[in-house]
């Protein structure tokens, strides 16, 4: 049987929960973005914007899911810089998106 | 300024982070990751706030509404960029067993958020809305 080292501070678990909280925040931002895009009724451009915000949200969920899975080992590795950039990139994309649809 | 350019170089050559110093205790790296995520949530909240100003204050004069909304979005974008930068710098400092970097960013951010809130209160109270 492999020995599973339990971290008394539950660091990996806390980090997993932090990713979940961040996913929740991302969901709120995506819902607000979708609402914003449909403000003037369901125009083709508005629907395209909703699809874009949904795609961004899915990208973030996938990213968080992969990191959460890689955190479920006793001694998880450092967050890859690529993942950090992708997470920040999602936020930046939301910003650009919203700057485009705010009227 | 030199520190800024060296961290800029690290943004585009991420593998260099691993070449520096020695790997710290994984718990410290995880704590750094959680701090990074907290900043990402702050950025998302600011972006959400930008949307909220635009959607939930429709009676506000156009210029005020758009101005406040774009200001919040811009601060959100800065916050996201700064989250990555700070995370990389903290990770490097831990690897080189240096002191963690100190920044003025939290103070500036809270001043900016306070200013936006104050402007919003004034604008709503004095009815600089249409009609």
UniProtKB/TrEMBL annotation, chain A:
Topological type in the membrane: Multi-pass membrane protein
InterPro entries recorded: DUF202 (IPR003807)
Domain DUF202 positions: 7-70
Primary location group: membrane
Signal peptide range in chain numbering: none
Keyword tags: Membrane, Transmembrane, Transmembrane helix
Compartment(s): Endomembrane system
Domain of life: Bacteria
Residue ranges crossing the lipid bilayer per the database entry: 45-63, 83-102
Matching Pfam families: DUF202
GO cellular component, as recorded: endomembrane system
Annotated protein name in UniProt: DUF202 domain-containing protein
From TrEMBL, chain B:
Keywords from the UniProt entry: Cell membrane, Membrane, Transmembrane, Transmembrane helix
Higher taxonomy: Bacteria, Bacillati, Actinomycetota, Actinomycetes, Kitasatosporales
InterPro entries xref list: DUF202, IM_YidH-like
Gene Ontology CC: plasma membrane
Protein's UniProt keywords contain Disulfide bond: no
Cell location: Cell membrane
Major subcellular site: membrane
Protein origin, superkingdom: Bacteria
Lipid bilayer topology: Multi-pass membrane protein
Species, as recorded: Streptomyces mesophilus
Positions of the DUF202 domain: 27-89
Protein name listed in UniProt: DUF202 domain-containing protein
Name of a matching Pfam family: DUF202
Keyword hit for Ion transport: no
Transmembrane segments: 36-56, 62-84, 105-129
PANTHER family: DUF202 DOMAIN-CONTAINING PROTEIN, FGR18P
